[in-house]
Specification:
Blueprint lengths: L11 E4 L7 E4 L2 E4 L3 E3 L2 E4 L4 H11 L5 E3 L7 E8 L8 E10 L3 E10 L5 H6 L17 E5 L4 E7 L11 E7 L2 E8 L11 E5 L20
Parallel strand pairs: 10-14
Antiparallel strand pairs: 1-5, 2-3, 3-4, 5-7, 6-14, 7-8, 8-9, 9-13, 10-11, 11-12, 12-13
Bound molecules: zinc ion (ZN).
The site of zinc ion has 7 residues, from loops.
Length: 221
Amino acid sequence: MHAAHNGWGMVLGAGCPRCASPVSEDAGTWRCLDHGPITPLWRPADAGYGTFAEHLTRAGAMPTLLPWPLPPSWAVTDFGAVAQEGRDARASFATVSGPTDLDGVVEVTVVTEEPGVGLGSRCAGLTRTDPGAEIGEGPPHAKVRLGGHQPVPLWSVLTSGADATFDRSVFAGEATGRWLWLVLRPASAALLLKDEWMLMNVADLGPELIDLPFGGSPPAW
Ligand SMILES: [Zn+2]
């Protein structure tokens, strides 16, 4: 196989960042059936420590952010990086899921991406590539902390134009020149964000990484 000689694609599978259509590779260029030439999204068949270590290598300088600390019984269900071989990733995401008192099982996906990638939109179920004009309009609806830095303001992104399922709440903002997206399912889980969350770059975890819990169903998108 094309990827076997260099290690890429052995542990993580390639897909389109913007849709679920099949992708193919020819002489190092990846194409989506619908979107043409793409930088592929690399995602594991099974989320686990081994595939996550491979993911962190692929993400390079692009942070992979998780709500931190993870509540008891929460686990990482999925992750991925949008990356070309030999370059830092253009986007990354991680999904965690677990029980809450208010909403039963909640799923949270955190996406970090350069403008124009479209991974956050896909996860949010939107058809456009980047968050809309609501970002920066009026007071923010939530704030998250990235490590010890200033809080990052987030605005609610309306998804009702895309479909009528209302199964999720989407927030987005901008941090260090990248889009930061939070997608919560069910939609009512947005209330959990009234407490200011801390997001941790998993690449900074060090030895604690070995204790990161994996498992559960990956997100449906
Ligand atoms: Zn596509």
